[in-house]
Specification:
It holds the Pfam family PhdYeFM_antitox. The longest helix has 27 residues, at about 40-65. Strand 2 and strand 3 (about 30-35) form a beta hairpin. This protein starts with a strand and ends with a helix. It is about 60% helix and about 15% strand. It has 2 domains: about 1-40, YefM-like fold (3-Layer(aba) Sandwich), CATH 3.40.1620; about 40-85. It has helices at about 5-10, 15-20, 40-65, 75-85, and strands at about 1-5, 25-30, 30-35. Strands 1-2-3 form a 3-stranded mixed sheet.
Amino acid sequence: MEILNASDAKREFGKLLIKAQHEPVGINKNGKPVAVVLSAKEYAQLEACRAERLQTALMAGLQELKSGQVADGNAVIERLKQRARSHY
């Protein structure tokens, strides 16, 4: 990944956009990474992966709910209190 400083990115914005069509381009400000510019196609793929992971996690959570593997917060706190009492 090519890295540009912010002032070069600003000055060469058109070139930055062309470079971003081929690979992500990092932007540094004061020597620290602050942004990455990537193509709209690559961003769409990233969002699709994120949505797929979220859907997978939600489906797993629903399965846990259906199988009774989920406890409510109050039950968890009560179990922790009981454990704490048994240790003293």
